[in-house]
């Protein structure tokens, strides 16, 4: 999997990448890590929640692109994990997305990568439970999920 991250990291404007499981835990990260582990985990959890919320709103997404003043974050849903790429704001995102798709396709055919991903398999919906959200977030989620 590390070679795939290296392949993505070679794209112009890419600072690094990482993969989080559906709990937000980091499975693999580029070397050197583009962000602190706790930051990557926080991003993993929050983006996972965003994917769950979009599904609950009948607006499923496979990819989210967050644009900030000084950086950009691509989040590509892999089903059992999320692939993240940290880029410069002016990165050629079409090239980055294509490279990510090629890497993911390779991982789907690679038994070692599949085994590694399966060791971390968990349901993303667990990110939006009473145990994982504060009271205000849980109240909002229950209203949102009920369609109200």
Largest sheet: 5 strands, antiparallel
The parts where pLDDT drops under 50 for at least 5 residues are none
- The helical percent reads 40-55%
The H/E string reads HEEHEEEHHH
The proportion of residues in beta strands is 15-25%
Indicate the structural class: alpha+beta
Total beta strand runs: 5
Mean model confidence by pLDDT: 91
**What's the N-to-C terminus distance?**
42 Å
The 3D shape can be described as globular
Radius of gyration: 15 Å
> Counting H and I runs of at least 4 residues, what is the number of helices?
5
Widest beta sheet: strand line-up: 2-1-5-4-3
Describe the structure in your own words:
Helix 1 runs antiparallel to helix 3. The radius of gyration is 15 Å and the shape is globular. Strand 4 and strand 5 (81-87) form a beta hairpin. A 5-stranded antiparallel beta sheet has the order 2-1-5-4-3, with helices on both faces. It has 5 helices and 5 strands, in the order H-E-E-H-E-E-E-H-H-H. The chain has helices at residues 2-9, 37-56, 93-109, 111-119, 135-145, and strands at residues 14-21, 26-29, 63-67, 72-77, 81-87. With 148 residues, it is of the alpha+beta class.
What features would you highlight for this structure?
148 residues; alpha+beta; 5-stranded antiparallel β-sheet; 44% helix
Q: What is the gist of this entry?
A:
The protein is α+β, with helices and mostly antiparallel strands and 148 residues long.
């Amino acid at each position: 999997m590390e070679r795939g991250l290296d392949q993505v990291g070679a794209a112009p404007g890419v600072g690094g990448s990482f993969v989080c499981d559906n709990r937000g835990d980091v499975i693999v990260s580029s070397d050197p890590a583009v962000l602190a582990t706790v930051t990557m985990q926080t991003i993993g959890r929050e983006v996972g929640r965003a994917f769950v919320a979009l599904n609950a709103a009948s607006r499923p997404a496979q990819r989210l692109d967050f644009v900030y003043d000084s950086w950009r974050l691509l989040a590509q849903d892999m089903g059992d994990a999320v692939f993240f790429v940290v880029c410069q704001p002016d990165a050629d995102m079409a090239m980055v997305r294509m490279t990510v798709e090629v890497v993911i396709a390779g991982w789907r055919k690679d038994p070692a990568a599949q085994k590694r991903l399966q060791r971390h398999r968990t349901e993303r919906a667990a990110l939006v439970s009473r145990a994982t959200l504060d009271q205000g977030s849980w109240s909002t989620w229950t209203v949102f999920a009920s369609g109200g």
